[in-house]
Amino acid sequence: MGIFIVCSGRPCYNEKYQIAPDLGRRLKCRYFFVRIKVYQKGRKGRQVIMCEKNLYMGKRVWRVFLLAVLLCFCLPLPIQAAESTGSGVKKEAQYYYKKGVRQKGWQKIKGKYYYFNRKSGIKVEGETVDGIEIKKDGTAVKSSYNKRKIETMITAHKLVNKITKSTDSRAVKRKKCFKWMFRFPYRLPREFDKAKKKKGWEMTFANDIFVDAGGDCVSESAALAFLFHECGYEDVYICHDSEHAWVETVDRVFDPLFAEARKYSRYYNVTYKAYYAECTRYGKARRVKLRKNQFKHVGRCKI
């Protein structure tokens, strides 16, 4: 006759079947509620009924189900997505979390360096990023130059998180980082003509600001370029001639030292033409030469 369950004795009413008033309409099992279809008299006056095969979930199951759905959407997992490779095999995308926050950019994990996309946070494998080769297992190729550059970028990343808010737009982050440079005193840490001949001079000058808290125009430009890069700008350049240094993006110029010493609006986020006009105004036309709306530089280093 089917599945039989002893009733709990709750009042009920059913139009199709006349069920005793002391019989519960829903019998509460451990995980489900069942609907009563037929009842029979059992021994010692108890009502024995046959339950419907189409069971439906009760309150306890709904709570567990909703909690599981919320956990899937709210709690991040180390592996959350899959990327299709050329061979047709799906490769799972990996993320890195620290204190519940998804980390991006270069990260040092157990003495090894990994790169997580600055936008999505997905771990990068088998590519070259920021001029640094990454192996198929996701670790950066070891060298003194790679270590210095990655450590400098990690420092810049931490400073950007300290200076700005996660909700800030890229333009707001850029402006905050630019103004942050004004707090450092001017001093000449070394001769640029000699220093630029060594590989990795951009990290050396950037750390004048990040570590020693002071430097010249090259130091401020190098540090600002690394900060801009961590803000999300992919093409950032430290530009210099024989006497001065500044920062360029694709079509804009940023000069933190002159913006602090002279007029802010004429050296922050200006065009090549406007910057050239300012250099000419202050008798510095020899520093830059404008050719087809671009500068002819003595040196240009990409971060």
Description:
This protein is α+β, with helices and mostly antiparallel strands and 303 residues long. The protein has three domains: 4-72, no CATH class; 76-142, left handed beta-beta-3-solenoid, CATH 2.10.270.10; 152-302, C8orf32 fold. Helices cover 30% and strands 23% of the residues. It is built from eight helices and 19 strands. A hairpin with a 2-residue loop joins strand 12 (128-129) and strand 13 (132-133). The longest helix is centred in the middle third of the chain and has 20 residues, at 144-163. The model is unreliable at 1-41, 44-57, 76-91 and 283-295 (pLDDT under 50).
CATH architecture type of the largest domain: Roll
Instruction: Tell me the name of the CATH class of the largest domain.
Output: Alpha Beta
**Nearest-integer average pLDDT:** 75
Number of strands: 19
Q: What radius of gyration results from the CA coordinates?
A: 33 Å
User: Outline, from the CA principal axes?
Assistant: globular
Tally of separate helices: 8
Low-confidence segments, ≥5 residues, pLDDT <50? 1-41, 44-57, 76-91, 283-295
The computed structural class is alpha+beta
Helical content band: 25-40%
Share of β-strand residues: 15-25%
Measured distance between first and last alpha carbons: 78 Å
H-E string:
EEEEEHEEEEEEEEHHHHHEEEHHEEE
CATH-derived topology of the largest domain: C8orf32 fold
Describe the largest sheet. Answer: 5 strands, antiparallel
Total tally of structural domains: 3
